[in-house]
Predict the 3D structure of the following.
Amino acid sequence: MRQIGRFQLHLRELLLVTAILPISSWLAAEIHGESAHRKYVAALHKQEAMHYKGIAESEILDHHTMFAMDMNRVCRRVEYPMAEAEMTEAKRIRERAGGLLAYHLALQHKYERAAYFPWLPVAPDPPQQQ
């Protein structure tokens, strides 16, 4: 028995304290690491969402625009109409980007929430739409 100030520590109490401290330190480090990983995954999904937001909110023009320089070195703007197949494809791409935007925003919010509760398990991600 050893007296420290007003407290007395018995050998078994000392062993218990020396066992609990490293375990709790390890557990805190693991939880912090898991939280940091989930914040990183949330940031990746945010970046993807911003990419698809730009595509989904872009305007579909009915013409192509080119800039051409003539023989006198004068730059002119040349516009020519877009084919119907190109318009259809542009609309399809924009609609798909809207779906992918919603998918990545949902995963961003999921992982941001999971970062605040790193001791809870995270459900698997839903499959990405094709």
About this structure: The mean pLDDT is 84. Residues 36-116 form one domain.
